[in-house]
Amino acid sequence: MTINQFNTQNLNVGQKLAIKYFSVAVVLFAAQILFGLIAGLQYLQPDLFYGVLDFNVNRTVHINAMIIWMLYGFIGASYWLLEDETGISIVGIKWGHFSFWLLTVAVIIVVLVYLFIQWGPGTDATIWFINEGREYIEAPRLADIGIVICMLIFFYNVAATVSKGKVTGITGVLTLDLVALAGLYLAGMFYTTNISLDQFWWWWVIHLWVEATWEVLVGCIMAWGLITTLGASRKIVTTWLYIEVALMFGAGILGLGHHYFWIGTPEYWFTVGGLFSALEPIPLVAMVVHAVYDSGKHGFKSNNHPAMAWLIAHAFGNFFGAGVWGFMHTLPQINLYTHGTQWTASHGHLAFFGAYATIIIAMFYFAVQKWRGGVTIRGDLVDSGWKWKWSLALLNIGVMGMTIALLISGYEQSQIERAIGGSTWLGYFQAQIHPWFVEGLVWRQIMGYITALGFILLVWDLLTIGKKEPLELESKVA
Amino acid sequence: MNKNKIWWSSEQFWKKTAIWVTALMFVILIFLSFDTINKITVGSNRVPSYSVINKQISYKFDTKRNFQVPVISEQDSPLFGKKLTEEQAEKLVTHGKKIVQGRNCMNCHTLLGNGAYYAPDLTKAWLDKAWGDEKYREQLMINFLMEPEKNARTFGSGRKMPNLNISKQEAQAIIAFLKWMSSIDTNGFPYNFNAISQGEK
């Protein structure tokens, strides 16, 4: 065992695999921010890279890098905690490494194709090899098949390890959740000309991933995180997890209806979608109560302060980003004016960051801690931990700032383009050139730079934190 | 612990609740999905058949539903002056949609309100007043799609669609797809749309 240095001898086999996933996740996180900055700048300077790296290319990479780095984060997190939870070594670890390389090679190829080939003719070959052209699941069909194979291997590893080892509430929920997660991806893997039907199934993937199965997955990570950092009671944490699953799936599954207001689907979705999506914030409130209560009960004493801080950031970010910002425009009476405006972008930024980026960053901190031999990362760090504190602050201020700036642009757009301008071509551009809209986008860009700065600091901190700290003795909490 | 004897705080109770609630919601979703898919099949009231591109489509205020709805006239108004069979129309619209996917239109535009927000929504693009007169619309759309940077009207925003090497045949297929999409009943979205031909139903 080597202390203070990155040494994989400090990790169990699942964790060795996990740090590979985490490393790629950080690189893709960087790509997400970089291409987000370029796309944001194109709003302000439309001639930037015009005809070379157009907005649609940058935006595709921006949102795909995000989905994929979060997926890497989730897979990594699951492998990270699996051995601790089940008490046994991961069953098919070789396959796990194989699928890591398969997925990574596939991701590299897909990104290169996005950047250098960009588009193809209106044939099936384009859909299979270049770009499927459907937001978030642009990956060509061939890559889809690769992703499904990797998800099946991942699922096998989790399910087989859990069934052979000790089944806990956390691993039980995780296993069942992964069935849904892998299965739902299939709903986005066929072509249909009927755009209403296309979007009907497309939302099964997007919504039921992001607003149901991913939420439950982070619920599992959160439960494990609270036990690990605070030494919270497993019985209480597990009971909370079940309550959250009941509320999350209870509201989130039919909450899907809020995407079925305007795509050609019948009017009863107004009622179903409106009602159930109004309930969707409830489990997120429960998560905040749960996290803050447990932390407070243990006096916020933990052996990994940055991870703890990011877990708390997750609880609040999830509630505000997914819960409050989602609810703000989820009722059909409001959504009629906000659907497809910068409101959605505002909500998207805070929700993905608050609900998912935060908790994966917490996992990064758990990983570096153990990777360095289980050092203490408490409040008394040698450099007083200024890097993690500043990166936490800058990332949160940056994303919150982008969210508010986009919301202001969104308000203006829903008023001028939608309510007054009638959503025509002219109405659209009248809203886009209005100073209130443009000012919002200028601030979004500034806040984007702050986010990027926070990210750079985060990477620096992850590479250096714990280098000079004493070894954490076996005690779970200090 | 005394607390654990209370039924609503027991782990087992919530475990069972989680399973039953999830199963119930999923069953309801499946049931509703069957009904919805039935109602959005091509050729239904909400999603007209592809041969609708042979007809004149307008967007009119429905006083009963209190929002605008697409109205398909009885009279023929074939796209590019050529009346197509249902099969030919499906082929053309399919080609159009595949081009829209292949050119990644959705990462600048929104379709049915979904996509990116860098360019106008395309849901009712066929019915947009920007095309001026119905007489010139088809030609203007072809011109625009083939040479977007020359025909751009960006109202001072400076945002121009890039040239995506769209041929005339491809432009026609895209327009067929847009015309068909404009006939879908989207529950009044986009609201208050100032259509090229409107009125009351």
* Number of spatially distinct domains of chain B: 2
Percent in helix of chain B: 25-40%
The CATH homologous superfamily of the largest domain in chain B: Cytochrome c-like domain
Distance between the termini of chain A: 21 Å
The helix/strand series of chain A, from N terminus to C terminus, equals HHHHHHHHHHHHHHHH
The rounded distance between the terminal residues' Cα atoms of chain B is: 69 Å
Instruction: Give the DSSP E fraction of chain A (strand runs of 2 or more residues).
Output: under 5%
Average pLDDT over all residues of chain A: 93
CATH topology of the domain at 1-166 in chain A: Cytochrome C Oxidase, Chain A
What does this structure look like?
The complex is a heterodimer of chains A (478) and B (201). Chain A has 478 residues and is an all-alpha fold. Chain A has a domain at 1-166: Cytochrome C Oxidase, Chain A, CATH 1.20.210.10. Helix content of chain A is 75%, strand content 0%. Chain B has 2 domains: 2-39; 50-182, Orthogonal Bundle (Cytochrome Bc1 Complex, Chain D, domain 2). In chain B, 37% of the residues lie in helices and 11% in strands. In chain B, the strands form 2 sheets. Chain B has a two-stranded antiparallel ribbon. Chain B has a two-stranded antiparallel ribbon with strand order 3-4. In chain B, strand 1 (55-62) and strand 2 form a beta hairpin. In chain B, helix 2 (86-102) packs across helix 4 and helix 3 crosses helix 4. Chain B is elongated. The model of chain B has no long low-confidence stretch (mean pLDDT 93). At the A-B interface, helix 1, helix 2, helix 4, helix 7 and helix 8 of A face helix 1, helix 2, strand 3, strand 4 and helix 4 of B.
Q: What secondary-structure arrangement, pairings included, does this model have?
A:
The complex is a heterodimer of chains A (478) and B (201).
Chain A: H1 13-44, H2 55-86, H3 93-116, H4 124-129, H5 141-164, H6 169-185, H7 195-230, H8 234-255, H9 268-279, H10 281-297, H11 305-328, H12 332-338, H13 342-371, H14 386-420, H15 425-433, H16 435-464
Helix pairs in contact in A: 1-2, 1-3, 1-16, 2-3, 2-5, 2-7, 2-13, 3-5, 5-6, 6-7, 7-8, 7-10, 7-11, 7-13, 8-9, 8-10, 10-11, 11-13, 11-14, 13-14, 14-15, 14-16
Chain B: H1 11-39, E1 55-62, E2 67-76, H2 86-102, E3 110-111, E4 114-115, H3 134-146, H4 168-182
Antiparallel strand pairs in B: 1-2, 3-4
Helix pairs in contact in B: 2-4, 3-4
